[in-house]
Amino acid sequence: MRIKKHIYARHASEYEIPFFDVDPMNIMWHGNYVKYLEMARCAFLEEIHYTYDVMGEKGYSWPIVQLNLKYVKPARFRQKIRVNLAVVEYESCLRIDYTIVDCQTNQKLTTGSTTQVAVDLKTGEMQLQTPQSWRDTLENYHGFMPCL
């Protein structure tokens, strides 16, 4: 039996696949999918006003410690895609699940997840809990969905 994850926040970003992201067969090169996850994550962080600049000002870096991707169907040159993002953990780390879909058909192209941890910039130590400033920001976001 699979346990359903709680989603604390959602965000969606749309992009068109440019020529420089595809291979000679006009299919997006597999390594470029990570860039679209990053762009969607940055758009979400902008929306909640907790960008990487703010993280640094608060005294933390947030490295990716785990990345998973599953390619379902290829994205192609000029295809319009939507990256749906779901925050599924935010207290001990920042874990985000992603689904990349075709904007026109909503057909799933790729799924993935990233896990980031807070690291104190002064000591270099990984934090076992995310900083209070991060938790407060997410919990005050208009789209936050607490676990009831």
Automatic annotation (TrEMBL):
Listed PANTHER family: 4-HYDROXYBENZOYL-COA THIOESTERASE FAMILY MEMBER (PTHR31793), NOVEL THIOESTERASE SUPERFAMILY DOMAIN AND SAPOSIN A-TYPE DOMAIN CONTAINING PROTEIN (0610012H03RIK) (PTHR31793:SF27)
Species name: Actinobacillus indolicus
Protein's name according to its UniProt entry: Acyl-CoA thioesterase
One term of GO molecular function: fatty acyl-CoA hydrolase activity
InterPro entries hit by this protein: 4-hydroxybenzoyl-CoA_TE (IPR050563), HotDog_dom_sf (IPR029069), YbgC/YbaW (IPR006684)
SUPFAM superfamilies (UniProt xref): Thioesterase/thiol ester dehydrase-isomerase
Swiss-Prot/TrEMBL keywords: Hydrolase
Protein family per UniProt: Belongs to the 4-hydroxybenzoyl-CoA thioesterase family.
UniProt keyword Hydrolase present: yes
Domain of life of the source: Bacteria
